[in-house]
Amino acid sequence: xxxxxxxxxxxxxxxxxxxxxxxxxxxxxxxxxxxxxxxxxxxxxxxxxxxxxxxxxxxxxxxxxxxxxxxxxxxxxxxxxxxxxxxxxxxxxxxxxxxxxxxxxxxxxxxxxxxxxxxxxxxxxxxxxxxxxxxxxxxxxxxxxxxxxxxxxxxxxxxxxxxxxxxxxxxxxxxxxxxxxxxxxxxxxxxxxxxxxxxxxxxxxxxxxxxxxxxxxxxxxxxxxxxxxxxxxxxxxxxxxxxxxxxxxxxxxxxxxxxxxxxxxxxxxxxxxxxxxxxxxxxxxxxxxxxxxxxxxxxxxxxxxxxxxxxxxxxxxxxxxxxxxxxxxxxxxxxxxxxxxxxxxxxxxxxxxxxxxxxxxxxxxxxxxxxxxxxxxxxxxxxxxxxxxxxxxxxxxxxxxxxxxxxxxxxxxxxxxx
Amino acid sequence: xxxxxxxxxxxxxxxxxxxxxxxxxxxxxxxxxxxxxxxxxxxxxxxxxxxxxxxxxxxxxxxxxxxxxxxxxxxxxxxxxxxxxxxxxxxxxxxxxxxxxxxxxxxxxxxxxxxxxxxxxxxxxxxxxxxxxxxxxxxxxxxxxxxxxxxxxxxxxxxxxxxxxxxxxxxxxxxxxxxxxxxx
Lengths: 418, 184
Known about the structure:
The complex is a heterodimer of chains A (about 425) and B (about 180).
Chain A: H1 5-13, E1 24-27, E2 31-35, H2 39-48, E3 60-63, H3 73-87, E4 93-95, H4 106-109, E5 118-121, E6 135-138, H5 143-149, E7 152-155, E8 159-165, H6 174-190, E9 194-198, H7 200-204, H8 207-216, E10 224-226, H9 231-239, E11 257-262, E12 269-271, E13 279-281, E14 292-296, H10 297-300, H11 303-313, E15 323-327, H12 331-339, H13 342-348, E16 352-353, E17 373-376, E18 392-396, H14 398-407, H15 414-417
Parallel strand pairs in A: 2-3, 2-5, 3-4, 5-6, 8-9, 8-11, 9-10, 14-15, 14-17, 15-16, 17-18
Antiparallel strand pairs in A: 1-7, 12-13, 12-18
Chain B: E1 12-19, H1 33-37, H2 43-47, H3 58-61, E2 67-70, H4 82-90, E3 93-96, H5 101-110, E4 114-115, E5 130-134, E6 139-142, E7 148-150, H6 156-163, H7 167-175
Parallel strand pairs in B: 1-2, 2-3, 3-4
Antiparallel strand pairs in B: 1-5, 5-6, 6-7
Helix pairs in contact in B: 4-5, 6-7
């Protein structure tokens, strides 16, 4: 019996020939990702144990993303602590203010993850990095064990094979496709599993679009989501002068299930609270009053999203009743958006612009007031996630969000793309 | 090795059952969403609002010897340790039909006593039933009906972490003070 990508990566990382789904193994990650919200807490815990520094400093990536704009002195001190640790060699890749960005995007911007690697991160959206063929797993506070021992305990998951075919219609983005597919798989089939993606829709996806796809799957509880490497990943590696051995599944690998989707007839979607999988076609909510539009976050603040939003917003201003926020996911993405003229379009649309922050996705920078409605490209929409528990978060693709910003109500992005 | 490797957590509970359904949310269900957003991690503070959204009297009335019973997909939603720490703060144990991947790992980190994969358990226990649970062996006894259920216990390795009261405690016992003097 052959092995899946996840099984091969976990076997190598645990020094074994092969691993079996269900068993618990100790694996040594290739890359360990932390951010400014969790990492200082972990350092504090390590200090209490009487430990100095973290295991495998050369594998550590630390980014500032949750609180780059904080005026809280505790946050400023924590930042100073991380800065000092980086300067002393205690962490190799620290992305300080000005070079900061969301921890799920910075490693792609910087070419710090490769296909076939085992990536471990504390933050829940870690599986997004499966976009380049890595197995990227979120551990939450389990990260502490990795920071102490250099290893993680992991239960070997089974893998589902997902085929997605069809050419997306106008106005349909990776967000719509990913959410529609993930909602159909649901957590009853996705939880604990690794998803491997195939099909002509996926072949045509850019790295950004694959990142969205793998990121969305977090909301059905996956352990990992992987797009097998191809020429697009080879191009990504070449851009950074990297080489990596591709890891692909054997033809006789065991997949727990194989599920196929045709996205040809799919329309742009909107997710209603309290669950990102609670989707309806955007046409069912047209005209609903909107107070805020947020284009940003690890899932909706990439070049793919900024380009789509700019295409809609070009030559328009946001509606006077709408607070439009645009937050490129990283400083590097911001620079690229500037170079492409996208930031000028947002600025002329009266967007409030910040850089490299999770921002409203977890309720900071611009929380919602009572009864307000926000159309957001961010990750989740439980009541209260962006401020008042009576506010409503509608999740949509960046073009749909931009259309709502112009109209002041939920609008069909296709009106602006014709 | 700084501290002696001695498990500290007892593994049996005899109390009342608090029964919940499927898909109990982590943020906003088990843990107060306000406290999640305020980054509160003190189990004793979290305990004061634990499960209140689903059972308003739970934080005041649940006792450390009680057990939360739940259906499938317990701990759905964001991977925040606030939920497991909230239950830990109350002191209760957890028995459910299934738990999400993220919540399972976080509960191990938090040292929450649990039997998280017991199919059909919510049909065998009513809210308020007196129950005895041995989390090490997996034996569940409903003292109202007399029924005894044998659940799959945690694997030995996971049990090792739970028996120390959680990941921090386990790490401190096993790896503490390796590179530096013990913290005060």
